[in-house]
Design a protein that fits this description.
The protein has ten helices and 32 strands. By secondary structure, the chain is an alpha+beta fold. Among the domains are: about 120 residues, no CATH class; about 90 residues, mini-chromosome maintenance (MCM) complex, domain 2 (Sandwich). α8 packs antiparallel against α9. The radius of gyration is 31 Å and the shape is elongated.
Length: about 650
Amino acid sequence: MPLKDLPGYYPEILDGGLGVMPPSLAGLFGVVGLSQKGTTDVKFAGNSDDVVAEYGLGSMCERIFDAFASGAWQIGIRRALPTSDGSPTQDTPVTPTNKTYGNPTAGGLAQASVMLHSGVTNPYNTRKFKIKIIKGGGIKKVTDPANPVEVATYKLSRNNGISWGPETKFTHTHEAGEPSRPACSIDLGNGTYIQFLEDDTTPQDSFVAGDEYWWETTEARANNDSLGDAIEDLLDWTDPNTGQGVEYLYVAALPKVTQNKANIKAFWTAIATKVETLWTQETRPCWVIVDAPSLEEADGCETIDEWIDLLNSVSAEYRHVRLCVNAGFAYLTGAPGVNYGSMIEDTVQPSIGTQPQVRPAGGCLAGLAAGAKLHHSIGWVRYMNIPNAVSIYPYHPPAAIDDEDIGDGDGIIKTFEGNLSEYPVIPWTVVITSTDTSPEEFVDGGDGKLYDSTSGDESGTIDYGTGAFKVTFATAPAAEEDILADYSHDPKDVMTKVRMSLLNDGRFTTLRLWIGYGIRFTDDWLMAPPTSDYFCIRNRRIVDEAVRQVGIANVPYVNSPGITEKDMGAYKADLSRPLEAMKVTEEDTDKPIMDYALTLTPDANIWSNGIVNCKVEIVPTPTKKKLVATFQLTTGIKE
């Protein structure tokens, strides 16, 4: 696909005629990631429709959508080949977890399994699904007065219950099972479907109102070598007209390794080394964006604070002036989705529209940088809007508590009550038992009640909001035996200003909600020492663009003779032309350079080596980051 609409053509009247500056590739960037399908050649796309047509769905396509939504104009794409399968596979279906509402022995009797469609190798993307039964019943309506069956209804969530689709009736799509009975297969839009088999004995009890089914599909992953090959291909790409490459690279995937300190550092180091080698060997400037592992992916992290500590421990040991690490995660709308319902036999799709997803905001960052002028920060509150961001995550990640001691047996007391130490409690997560040799076990039915897990008898209560519980054992726990509770709670952890400040101090880019302006990036940090000239993206871009443009202006002078004062004057004027185009003027103050100085000095051995030394000093346009204001009361204002 040819390049189009390249910004940065600078026509100007010069002595002797019209001069046209070489094109700038500022804003042109590449993306590496994983997708449903597509070539592994480097291709360019100008909109999301092009991406879906070539690459289908997948995490890379979602990030590219975010980039286009945030202002990207054209993106180079290199799909990495997966090296490990996701889940489910053709040979290994996934069995959803049936969260029985109320009595754990009285849940729906339907059999459920999640499978890949025929011809599909892996799920196209990673999703956490939930189905909530709204009205109980079966799959196929039966009007026999002796054994009537009403059709059950459900709601589907593709984002772990953050939002739900419309109430929908189960559809009798085919017959299946042993013995054969009514079945309903629901296409999930990512190469997978969930199949429910109606109970063959009491079909009216196949689904019970309030029950939920939870499961996850995961896309295939790539290892370090596969991602490395894709990164090198994009870095090797050059525009055939100018010889320039992409300005920056966004790696929209993490390798399938344990996301601990050592592996995170190794991944960042490998990528930064590649772009640094490009500079040292070919004098081609480039920088790179990577996403930090999520709270869920990060090894050994259950809370936001543990996650921040892990990231900052890596930052404390490794910095690079060409590396930008995004630690912003958001609830983002509008990722590309495709309706497969009409394409796949014996399935039904209840909702064509896509549901927002929680994902890293690296694509938004890449898109904002593409659409911004060189000296504009992606954290500029007034202009750098993330149009498809709804809220900031990590938001309320659940935290698990194991073996909390909530009482002691004495061989007499059967009823125990008190308060769990952490709350609000997440429904369906409470399990209370004792350390007796043959302990009783009580489970949370999602309805605020505790049930004997064996008999299904109601045996207590749990207040999710306060953590207050009451449970009665059939047999008093023996003396000195502990009463223990396992549960998950909502720690109410949010990305507060203090936490954002900690990430900022670690040189990460992250997100903040500005009242009246919405969600914005806090800054445009590079993973560089604070004292570095390249502590931020805008400084990196200004200098890199100057390097590219001066380098192109030098091309006509390669192997040319002449070092007289007149020759050097013309040479200096031509090399200075792109810098003049970048410089602030009275007519246009929104330029990246306030002033510059370009000095040419022939090398002492120019007769043998042909070297002319060029020194360029640049004064970048400053950015207003903070207002330090003093307010005071006075009895009058002096003119």
